[in-house]
Amino acid sequence: MVQRAVVMYMEIGCFVSCLCGWILVCSTLPTEYWTFSEVGSIVLTTSNYYSNLWKDCISDTTGVSDCKDYPSMLGLPVYLHACRALAIIAVITGFFGGVLTLIGMKCTKIGGSEIANARVTFAGALTYMVSGSCGLITYSWWANKVVREYLDPHFRAQKFEIGAAVFVGFGGTILLLSGGAVLSYFSGKEGIPSSSQNKPRRPVSYATARTRRTYMLPPSSSRVTLVPPLFYEGRKSRATKATSKSRQTFSRDSFI
């Protein structure tokens, strides 16, 4: 009972962690500060350039800002298409991971048996880990490109720095991966038996439960023998026959 309560509270903690991580990942998609750059042309006027997966924006110190969507989807670079796809996959898989975890948790009592609920929770944990992996690849790829272009001395175009949305996304993916890993450990330990439990156990002695009484002598006997009873009885009968033959007495009339 105590172990079940501990597992239940661990499931609740992992679910809250994964839910917070998924919310952080979702919040980065509409955020415009994936990359930013500050350019000061005049002392009193400074222009800020920032962009995300969907558009480029510019603002100045006067408060005027303008955003423009990317002109053509087919003309975009490959990494931008990949980051968009991975970010959307992270959001979708995180949503289904939350649904599966809610169904299989011990505190909700929605599913069937304990083993079935544990397997559903294990599936939700794996879905959360897939969501975190997709998000981690997205933010790592984006940050790597920004840093590589910034440190490249031969890059002549405008250089950007990593925005706040990328760091928020990293925090969300860490919560998703850590919560999903702990949740998969506890649910998988209960729902998926190990291979050692499926192996047939070797009997303690050479005799099974059915035949153990056959190879035991009565309590009155002080000597234990490993000879099967049939063979033992055969030896006993032969011995009695031999003694009976040796004890026979012959008279004179028997030879006549």
Automatic annotation (TrEMBL):
Localization: Cell junction, Tight junction; Cell membrane
Q: Can you tell which superkingdom this protein's organism belongs to?
A: Eukaryota
Asked if the Swiss-Prot or TrEMBL record annotates the protein with the keyword Cell membrane, the reply is: yes
Q: Where is this region: Disordered?
A: 236-256
Q: Name one GO molecular function term.
A: structural molecule activity
Q: Which InterPro entries match?
A: Claudin (IPR006187), Claudin_CS (IPR017974), PMP22/EMP/MP20/Claudin (IPR004031)
| Primary location recorded for the protein, binned into one broad class | other
The residue ranges crossing the membrane are 7-25, 78-104, 116-142, 162-186
The record's section on PROSITE patterns has: CLAUDIN
Q: How does the UniProt record describe the way this protein sits in the membrane?
A: Multi-pass membrane protein
- Supply one GO CC term from the record: plasma membrane
> What keywords are assigned to this protein?
Cell junction, Cell membrane, Membrane, Tight junction, Transmembrane, Transmembrane helix
Record-stated family: Belongs to the claudin family.
Protein name as it appears in the record: Claudin 10
The record lists the organism as Seriola lalandi dorsalis
